Records
---
Amino acid sequence: MSTLRFNVVESAFRKKAAAVKIPDSRPCDYFGKYVFGREQMSRYLKSETYSSMIDVIDKGATLDRKVADEIAEGMRRWAADLGVTHYTHWFQPLTEGTAEKHDSFFEPNGKGGLIEEFSGKLLVQQEPDASSFPSGGIRNTFEARGYSAWDPSSPVFVVDDTLCIPTIFIAYTGEALDYKAPLLRALSAVDKAATDVCHYFNPGVQRVFAYLGWEQEYFLVDEGLYAARPDLLMTGRTLMGQEAPKNQQMEDHYFGAIPQRVAAFMKDLEIQALQLGIPVKTRHNEVAPNQFELAPVFEECNLAVDHNMQIMSLMRNVARNHGFRVLLHEKPFKGVNGSGKHNNWSLGTDTGVLLMSPGKTAKENLRFVTFVVNTLKALYHHNGLIKASIMSADNAHRLGANEAPPAIISSFLGSQLSQVLKHLAENDSDDIISFGGKQEMKLDIPQIPEIMIDNTDRNRTSPFAFTGNRFEFRAVGSGANCACAMIALNTAVADQLITFKKDVDALVEGGEQKMKAIVKVVRRYIKECAPICFDGNGYSDEWKEEAVRRGLDCETSCPLIFDNYLKPESIAMFENTGVMTRKELKARNEVKWEMYTKKIQIEARVLGDLAMNHIIPVAMEYQSKLIANVHKMMDIYTLEVADRLSAENMRLIEEIAEHTIYIAAHVETMIEARKSANRISEEREKAIAYHDTIAPMLEQIRYHIDKLEFIIDNRMWPLPKYRELLFIR
Ligand code: ADP
Ligand code: MG
């Protein structure tokens, strides 16, 4: 009998909520305590140094060596006061996590003692030995080394005894090897393009920021149960498991009372997040059992991305202190909802205007419509690319199932906005815009209410929904780095705004009044990008057929979806905006395909091991028990009676045999399929082989294992079951 399973279930069940150390002070007192923010800078830097630093942050000014040294020294003193002994460049390679290599501030002074030192040079640039990070071949062809360079727009922070310095990570030849470098380029492209368009409406605008508010979904699982599931441990998801009799059908978990042990985890997490300057705000139970969500207030996109990366690692650490493991995988359990990370995205000016927000005057509303329509147009032209930006082996399980956005990118606008756009598009007369006596402008479109946020008018099935003053990109995966989606989206919008400005300027040069020119171009765009707008049920089969007719990208194979990055229009878009070169795009795709293959490969290995070493032996053992029982029946009854009484056992014996034969044979076939896929040298072709042949086998084998779980004596089953993983908290 599997005593392991019973012991871990028993101990998981008895776990009590851990005590949380609540600080004496209020959140506003400890918010940002571990961040070298403006307040800390003003205390630790001389006033000229402080001003130079602010210029670097706000205006992207360059730092001279002397000032860098002074900033580094100020940082070190601040960190030393917090007991910090080490520092690290903190960067985001093309894996799912972050990377850091800690160095001590202390060095031998040559006289048998130590001195404490941190120079501007060490702050600004490092050369981590990075040959083991994915580069898609970029580094092999040139220098093996890459270097990390400080991103002063995201503040340094302290974790434990280490000062963490956010950096970009690039090859010696300049190609980005991380997410941050292209993200910063994309944000600067959208800043420039949107500022230019803003000047039609307000010449005083100097900068446009992209904002991001992410909503992080996750599961918590008791750590003992987790440790007894090699599949969770190795792949982050369950590769097998019979659905629990009850899961989310009662809809009793969403917004339900938060269980005590989970609440303790959340409190602890939030305190630590606030100390890191992450403005966490919302927490609640999600739809699936043991699924939860955390959301901060939105921030400038680069900072929001860093904060999300920090929160994911913080969650992993804090969960362990509460006897949990956090699952950030997009689909840890079959049959219950997966986890996403909604990316609420918008643009806003340095004058404090949210560009996707309706205003009070006709001009403000035309500005609002302009930015919304350009976003839709960008989404339409690059709908395959935008899908590729959120695609991964893990997220593929979620997209397309009836729970998450489908694998087709469309946008939900709601009835009010749809009506406004329809009116603008259909009313071809010039009177739609008129100018009163005192140059007062009028726009003949249905009243746009200032606040459009209407909770009854929200379509949960849309991957890209307009929600009043922003778009909510819902297809992003829970474990993903938001940067990947944000690079594609901001670049597409930047590129589109550049085109828009050209189109409007051409009309103006031809003698058209500026506002009328804008209306004309917007009107044309609304008609052109109509196919991307869809307010119906995104889960329905009719939509899939309709989307094909509309010419939207309906591909579902992950390796093929990545091809979108290398389409001529995608390369042109990234190159025009200076965000990524063809070479960088190619290299990144190599990494994407390789990652895809490795994920499926690991899952296949783990499933093979579990099937052969855990499941089949137990199935045989139980089968032997049944056979012994049949023999004993024959000993004590006449053949005829024994036959009748053993009929059910005989059936089970056969059924177990059928399942185990299938499993054993298919594990063999899967190994052979891997061997042949591994011989393919092209990463793309290899990923396609893994997608087409190996991934489906995982499902087929699982089907038979799940059947066995249903039949075999509960006491013998070697793994914690869904009902335990999902309901013990
Ligand atoms: P819901 O789950 O109802 O969509 P939440 O409150 O959980 O809403 O999360 C909404 C997120 O959107 C928050 O992070 C919020 O700060 C963010 N947000 C609100 N307005 C904007 C905006 N204009 N731009 C970007 N993000 C925004
Ligand atoms: Mg939301």
Note: The CA atoms of residues 234 and 606 lie 7 Å apart.
---
Amino acid sequence: MAQTKALKGFKDILPNEIHLWQRVEDVARDIFRRFAFFEIRVPVLEPTALFVRSIGADTDIVEKEMYTFNDKNGDSLTMRPEGTAPVLRAYVEHALHLKSKVARLYTIGPMFRHERPQKGRLRQFHQMSVEVIGAAGPLVDAELMAMAHMILARLGVSAALEINSLGCPDCRPAYNKALVDFLESRRDNLCDDCRRRLDKNPLRVLDCKNKKCRAEVEESPAITDFLCLPCGDHFAAVRAGLDAMAVPYRKNRFMVRGLDYYRRTTFELVTDQLGAQSAVGAGGRYDGLIESLGGAKNTPGIGFAIGMERLVLLLAANEPGQTPGIDLFIAGLGAAAGNYAFRLIHALRGIGISCAMDMDNGGLKSQMKQAGKAKAGHTLIIGDDELATGQAVLRNMASGEQRPAAIDDNDINTIATALAAEIQPGA
Ligand code: ATP
Ligand code: MG
């Protein structure tokens, strides 16, 4: 038998939950517009090297999570695991720095990571991700966090903003050394992953989820004590910017993020309502990344991504599923009435009414059942008698109230206009 199930970690989004997805997207687009961001759409497939170079070879994503394969030409391709690298690639490829001093871009779409699926963690998931390219100042960092905060607030989702600074190539090496010195003495107490991280990517030990590792790093030196003067000033100004907008936040020195490209500011929006999958959104500054992807020297950049599945889970917790409905179902009984219904429905659709009918011309009982399942606000019943008298029956499906509706010899557009006015909500 043919395969009849979606792949593990790949999920259908059904009509009864789509309103939540649409609301998330509508709210986000509206807030992006207010903050003067423009949409960009980039491919789902990119050369593997793009992600290896930007995300970093020693990260979980590149080491274990990418969907990578050779295409028929033998080129190594990867299903994008995140949106930043493709957007930056597009920025460089199309020389978008010539179009405006600062590029403010957002994109919405599916990402792919081969992870262990669980609640709020899928293999195909969706992100709304945002990049600001060409602005180095700390107020942009604060502005981006405020935007993420505003999106969640408008959706009624409460998540705490946590911020940190990871320093820069000038100050991070000294911190790395201090951290490694500290952790080496406790190597035996760390999990296998962290022992490996200690050699390759020590910062990552700080955000290990393992309880024992967490306890070990509790006393570790704090990166914020090692920031060079410019990084320290930057971090202070980010916080001042947040204070100026009255955006609440807390510092979390253990938050290091899983991608290598971050510098200075990093942040996460966390909730306690999704178990281990606590991050609803996350981002940070990545000065230097654009240059490493072939862009102009010293181009600064910062971005964040919000996970849509997790947002939808938070929204769904507070509201039931909802089967979408239509304005009107037309039950045409018999060939002549069916034919009339077919013409009328097209006229109604032309003036904005959502309507459906049984194109297979079933009996009254079956058609009323279909009207119910379609969640129609009204049903218009037309049989031979109604055609002859020019009076159909219009039924309000919620109240059960029925009244006559004209379907006389007037032209079909006049009939449709009158009917549309009859069934407007509240009429
Ligand atoms: P996590 O720590 O949960 O693995 P991450 O650090 O890998 O998250 P990012 O790469 O920063 O996540 O992606 C930003 C957001 O995208 C996350 O905060 C989360 O909401 C969402 N996200 C990441 N991976 C997944 C996934 N596999 N399934 C669903 N949502 C995800
Ligand atoms: Mg992850």
Note: The pocket of magnesium ion (ligand 2) is lined by residues 258 (CB under 6 Å).
---
Amino acid sequence: MRTMEQSKGMEQAVYPGSFDPITNGHVDIILRGAQLFPRILVAVLENPKKATLFTTDERVAFIRDIFKDRPQIEVEAFHGLLADFVRSRRARIIIRGLRAVSDFEYEMQMAQMNQQLNPDLETLFMMPSARYTFLSSSLVKEVFALGGSVRGLVPETIERRLREKFKAQSESSST
Ligand code: COA
């Protein structure tokens, strides 16, 4: 029989990632996940070994701002093992987006490793809307840095943040 806490865990799903920055592909998965679960916890990876454009605090703040009118969607930073973080939040479900066959192998490895680390975990794969299957955070950064438009690919607030970040970077490199 499930304990109350375990049953409570069923009510929320964790959506982990680097979100450097969050794109409309991620937003799509979060919103669709929110139709399946009463609560979605967006878990932002803090990885000191990975150089990111935006700091962990920035990435968390941007996502909180995007979903500020949806109390059902929470955002938290995490470090260390995802399996431990999910357990510490008394959750059982991890949501991941599968954009293309190329995602499959890596995702399968992660899901199986997470299950090995915490057998209570289930990874639920969702397909992003077809219009976002080509999208990734790196591509967004690259296109933006080279002067291309990312309109419609990221929330407006992220477009603004990208502009500010690249402006600050070019100012500091020219001094
Ligand atoms: N729409 C658009 N882009 C998407 C997407 C979607 N629905 N889903 C994933 N992506 C993109 C991301 O933008 C990212 O692009 P980038 O590589 O160009 O930056 C790429 O796919 C993968 O990113 P993400 O989904 O953020 O995964 P990740 O590989 O950065 O992080 C974690 C995956 C955080 C889940 C994983 O690293 C982890 O669990 N780390 C904690 C340590 C741990 O537990 N390790 C053992 C794992 S078994």
Note: The chain has a mean pLDDT of 92.
---
Amino acid sequence: MDVDAGHGAALGGALPTQPGELPLTRRLRSLLAWPGAETDPVSHLVRTHRGIHSGADPAVLRRAYTIAETMHRGQFRKSGEPYITHPLAVAQICADLGMDTTTLVAALLHDTVEDTRYTLQALADDFGPEVAHLVDGVTKFDKAFYGKAAEAETIRKMIIAAGKDVRVLIIKLADRLHNMRTLGVRSAASRERIARKTEEVLIPLCDRLGIQTLKRELDDVVLLHLHPEEHARIARHVHDRPGWDAYLAEVVAQARVALRRNRVDAAVSPRPRHLYSIWKDTVAGGHSAPYDLPRIAVVVDGPATDCYAALGAIHGLWRPVPGRFKDYIASPKNNLYRSLHTSVCGPKNRTVEVLIRTEEMHRSAEYGIAANYRFPRAGGDAAARAEQLAWLHRVLGWEQDAADPAQFLQSLRSDLAEAQIQVFADGRQVVLPAGATPVDLAYELGTERGDHCLAARINGRLAPLSSELEDGDVVEIFTENDADNGFEAEAAPRGPRKEWLRFVKSPHAQMQINRWFAEHTEPGISISDKVRLGRATIGLALRQHNRGLASDLPLLRLAEELGYPDLETLLVAVFDRVIAPDEVVRQLIDLVDHRQ
Ligand code: MN
């Protein structure tokens, strides 16, 4: 990277609002710089931000805007608007979400390093390492160098950066939301491609972070681009539902009376579904007309136990529809969503859906991980926060084991796509992909447990290691190392079985089993295995430098430079330790960083 620290720092000095200025001077300066509040491009952003964080300092936002605007000047979006409208809109989405000043600054600058001559170093000098880390996390890999694999590398890099600071993902989601909103000007093919990618990776990521306010918008905009006529049909339906509002008002009024009579303090309001959710239920149920039940939310002003009191009041008023009650308070969803769900036979015999939750549950249902920033004093406890990011750390766990970014991306996709189950083991809840087996569980409990698992007891009964676990199962794992496991232990620990690969479900377990075989099959190893393992060794060593290789190009060049006849020979040499992997990696990084 070329270091250009002087440039940005110099610009920073020329910005408005300097300390020690007289109020009048400042006012005159601001009048000169921003001819009026209405035309000041940052004022809406500042107002939103200070509406949620009253103590926030607007000066740094203006400084970030000025740099971004200067850097992007002369660049235009496909719509013809000046480029700066995009980072400003992304920052606005983050502000509406209630994110902190640092996130907003990074959002304003998020494309500068990728698309302008502003460098990461200048950014770090001007705004500090935190902002630099966030911007770097959303900066794409160079397509010219990484080619087709750039996308996988970019996602891998973003996830690693998010492991250190989850705000990276929030900026990326806001970035994608604004790009999706403004896709209209692109060709049909590129709209579909971008919408599909959003649906495949970013929406599930958003869902895992629990940020429903963003997810609803992303869902609807994906529907718009993938199925425009369906989007129009559902929108029309929502727009003209005769008597719908009056009916909901009646439901809300009756519910309020019943709650008051039962001495439950609660706010009741209609809870409309978003278009995508109506469409999904319509398709899933095979309905010809849009399928959309009236829905209300009851937000109790008290502890979680009040939710059950509210449930009693609602079920006392209207008969519950059998089989529709779900207690996500006792068993939260994998993104920590908590609420009671029920359907009742409401006025005029129409089915009504009811969501019941506390204030705190409501906040985290809407904002998920972003609630920690929006309500910093609400005392969201550290344990819940850590739990919310547990899956992210699990994903980062396989990152260590994935042979290359493409495999990592594939694992990430399948993890995000799959339904999940929760089982109980070692006295705690463990989240696994649907269809997981005791072997998946054992690896989730620890590599040692996985490598040496021998048998499992599911709900008190012995079961084969290949059994499919079900939601709510209580599982015990026995290993060769359990002193008193009651099983015939063989003399020597034997490790995983090859056939496990046929039934394990989680990418983590797959990778761990492959790793074990890679480590334990050295004698009589074939050349093709040596090539594969040599490559994996380089991959691992690169990863220790937080780098990755998505194409063979740099390796090919290095092989040539080192005088090897071909790439395979170099990889075998690495495997046989003829050349140290660290040495290869040092030279590779040199080669990549000085490619001009
Ligand atoms: Mn962008």
Note: The CA atoms of residues 555 and 561 lie 10 Å apart.
